[in-house]
Amino acid sequence: MPRKKKAENITIQSKETKIIVGIIIFILGLAVAVSSFMPLSSPLFSQVTLLLGYSSIAWGILLIYVSFFLLTKSSKFKSWKVALGLFFFSSCLSILLTFWQVEEQLNNTESLRSSGGQLGKLMHLGLNNVFDDILEIIIVLILLVIAFSLITGTTLEQIRDFLESSTEKGGEKKKFDILSLFSKKKSPDILEGEPEIDDGGDNVDGQGDLFSENKDEEPVMVGGNEENIATENTEAVPHTEGVADENKEPERPKYTNWVFPSTDILQEIENIEQDRELYKEKAKTIEATLKSFGIPAHVVAISVGPTVLRFSLSITTGIKVSKVRNLSNDLALALASQTSSVRVEAPIPGTSFVGVEIPNPTPNFVYIKDMIKRLRHEVSKGKNYELPLILGKDIAGKTAIGDLSKIPHLLVAGATGTGKSVAINSLISGILMSKTPDEVKFIMIDPKMGVEMAAYNGIPHLLYPVITDKELVVNALQWTIGEMMKRYRMLKQAHAKKLTEYNKKMGYTAMPYIVVVVDEMADLMLTAGVDVETRIQRLAQMGRAVGVHLILATQRPTVKVITGLIKANVPGRMAFAVATAMDSRVILDETGAETLLGNGDMLFKDQTTPKSLRIQGTLTTTEDGEAIINSVKEQVKGQDIEYSQELSEAIERGGSAKPEESSGVKRDPDFGRALEIIIANKQASASFLQRKMEIGYNKAARLIDQLYEAGAIGEMDGVKPRKVLVSSASQILGKKEGDGNAP
Q: Cis omega (within 30 of 0) on the bond before 408?
């Protein structure tokens, strides 16, 4: 026989007891909550209203919530914080309803019924006897804030930030929105009928949602944050034996009162009104075209970009995405596309839709003034950009601003006249408008006789005037490698892993970023391919930690110019319109750039984006560029621009007259002899030098390491022999050939 289930004893912990007590408390709470609205003929309601007054509503809600502790299993009604918050709220309501009563009314029964009742009178007099009226009301208001925090789950820190942000810098109050404290933004639902037209948060018709109501107000950015730096953090880096310059205290900032140029000097923004009805007609055309080919599809959203429209298609399950992609030419024919081509993105990243991109019939350019305003707005809100890159606006009209320090190197490529030079000027202008000469230094290389970058000569951000002589480029890159190694030694001495940590330990901007900008790399690769490639490769491999970053541009995206080694170390890519899909693969490792529109239309990709992002590049006119440069030069007017003396000497004498100083390591006396041997035999290894020079293995291995550090040979690649990267000993030693074997 099955064993009888033992009956549960009725105790205070038993389920039956909890339910019974919960029901009693619920009925009591309900009675208390409605007592103010019931006739006073009932003794219960009469006593409750006399005790609690109109605050009985709040006390009744508290009792009902407490009853849910016993009646339900849901954790939603088992928060002691909410219960405590309701208790504080009820108490404060009783006090506030009684606070405004005069002494005669406090002794009148009818007055107490219409205020906080006897309980409110008791708490009010208790507080008022200890504190004054002002302190009493302050205490009650503080308790109300705490009650609001406990009931809604909003932290006190969030409430403080909300109160601070409710008033702008100029003192103008914002619109009060209490729901913004604890409401979450929901993604818009997709309409089943007409497609949703999305102009993006940064729509092209206005300033977008990023700005406050006062659109003309511009955050003021002033350089020179070093004035309030504590002096105890300015100790020099300890001395290390064998290093010549690193034991000196780094140079302190010179431009502590730097003021960034105003956006008022830039060209005004001109926007063309968008025709939404035309977009809906094109959506119907796309649906009809696909339906004629047996593909049922529905346009669920339309993203309006500056120069491109993207229609988000929802296709039926079971239809291959490749079928839609193969119909790009048929869609272009049906839509009468200006470029006779349509780009199909399948799928749109982060969605389950297929994107059909066509040119915008009413395009709007992305002006540098708008982008600088948005950059400064984000910086004023606390977002940090070490090296801001003004990219433009994406296909949905959202602002795209990158950070070169995180990319960390950028390749800009595309056919002639597609917007590369304008993009580079925009990138440089964005840095000039947001960084002081103490924070960022430039080395600009323009093989086109300086026609693009000559205007930058004379700004204090330059380490050396714009280099136009191709014979000096290798010397400048070699000096940059030496500076990079010097910085690594300084970081090692300061026990820092990167530039930002080093500057933080020093207490000021002791080590500025160095940005090397090459406007036309193809010409350099043709004239000095091996020398330029090896040095760019070394800078790209090791430059990030010490703040050395590269921006490389070319109009010949071929494998001879953009080699595999360069691509492997330059993750940031900006691809403008190219002629063939092969050129697109060279730049991005994928097709797509051959369908771009030109005039700044580009695909951007870095290590954080698995798929390329289509962006309309920023338009920086010649007038805008000159206005920014002149404004920067105006601040140093009458002063002599101090270029880097070390870089000037290195360029004039060939960059490596004193290799020990550039590398920081004393070379072996037989270094010159080993260099000539590997050049003559076109091979390099420790065992090879050991046989040729009749030396021990340790010395041969040390010579190989020194040859690699000097850039004479390539790195080890498994069992393959090291490549000899130089053809003359003078390229390393800085001497004429045949001057002996001394290092």
A: yes
